[in-house]
Amino acid sequence: xxxxFSFLALGLAFTWLFASAASAQDxxxxxESTKSYEQTIDQxxxxxxxxxxxIMAQVDQGNMLSMAGLKLKAxxxxxxxxxxxxxxxxxxxxxxxxxxxxxxxxxxxDGKTYVSYDKPSSLLKQFNxxxxxxxxxxxxxxxxxxxxxxxx
Length: 152
Known about the structure:
Elements: H1 2-27, E1 28-32, H2 37-50, E2 54-60, H3 61-66, E3 74-80, H4 82-89, E4 101-107, E5 113-118, H5 120-124, H6 130-151
Antiparallel strand pairs: 1-5, 2-3, 3-4, 4-5
């Protein structure tokens, strides 16, 4: 009996692990840039500005990590639009964990630059709100467009 329980627990753990990995793949988007790290950042800033959004914060993670001895080009941007954010916050203040959106630009070990983000619809579906889902779907399209403009 103890052996059966152990196999069951192990099976459930593997199922959860693979389901979590698949879920992460459905949520996270990474786009390879045809530009350098610096050019990609400049293009992202321009795309955000022209796309009716704003950069609310910029965190130079590479600079912070250099204090611990890691040499890395990595910048996190918080991107949003207060009017759109208002629509979400009116439904549930918990959206503040995910809004403004996070856009991460990094230079990989292969020397290429990447732009990554989590799909807003995946992050916000937990709120079970048609209004939030509608806005999140629009944000999916918006952030996908920003990533494409920044990387091509």
